[in-house]
Each structure stands twice: as C-alpha cells, then as structure tokens.
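Sharing in case it's useful to others searching the archive later.

Someone asked me privately for the predicted structure of ATPase, so I'm posting the question and my answer publicly. Question first, with the sequence:
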Amino acid sequence: MSNPMTIKAEGQELILERVFHAPRELVFKAFSQAEHLKHWWGPRGWTLTVCNVDFRPGGIWHYCMKCIDQNQGDFYGFESWGKAVYQEIVETEKIVYKDYFSDAEGNEAEGMPSPLITMTFTEFEGKTKLVSRAQYPSAEALKTVIDMGMEQGITETWDRLAEHLQAMQ
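And my answer, the predicted structure tokens:
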C-alpha cells in the first residue's frame, strides 16, 4: 500500500501530497482515462455511473458518483455530479483543471466552490509523488468543502487509486 496522504489547508489553498508505489506514467494514465477513473474515483461505497472524459486542454470530464453502500444511511442512492474543465496538460507531468459541482446536463452548480486544481506527477525513488494544489476563490470557500467531509472523501478516493494502481501493474 502507498504512503499516507498529507493534507494542508493554507489560506485559500488545499494541498494534498502522496507517494504512490507505481510509475509516473501509470499514475497519470489513471487520472486521464475513463476506463481507469471508473475503478477508483470517489469515496468507498460510491461508484461512477457516468464518466465521460475528453482529456485535452479545453476538454471536459463530466461524471456522476452514486452511493451504492446501504450502510451510508441517508447518502445511499444519492448522486453527486461533477465537471472538470481541463486547462493545461503536460503528458505524465501535470494536469490543470477547474473543478465544478454540476448537474446531469453539465451546468455548474451556483454557489458551490469551484477551485483551480494543479496536479503534478514527479518521479520519486522509483515511485510517483502526486501533489494536488486546489486554489479556492476564498478561505471561506475552502472551509465549505472541508465542512462537507471532503478530507475523508479524498483520502478514501486516493486509497482506492493506490489499490487500482496495484491491480494495473
């Protein structure tokens, strides 16, 4: 299993770091292809029922996470739609995108925080160090997503990524 993730909130920026026991090309592929994202994106007990990826600058990733775990109480059956609009892609090194809550048609949810996320993939002792920097419009916007349980969700999501990377090798 991979090393634990570090999470830091500084002002209006959320910084996530984790080292994955997989080559950089593989970790990058897991973020860039629908057939991989479907296996790991979302917290435990959730699945992607929709995953449309147009992986290029200006392209959009539109997805729906659905809770399929009856033990999650009121969340069971709940759908959460999201949309990423890619701004910059450097093969195996960097992905920059604007992250939105959305609806099934891809309309951005009003009043929900929409960070600019920069992910860097760096070779690190034969593994991959992934750093995600999410720049929120304000410290209050960052606090909103933290209060929604985003830290647990992203930790479980990246745990699932580590498991998927092992299965890919």
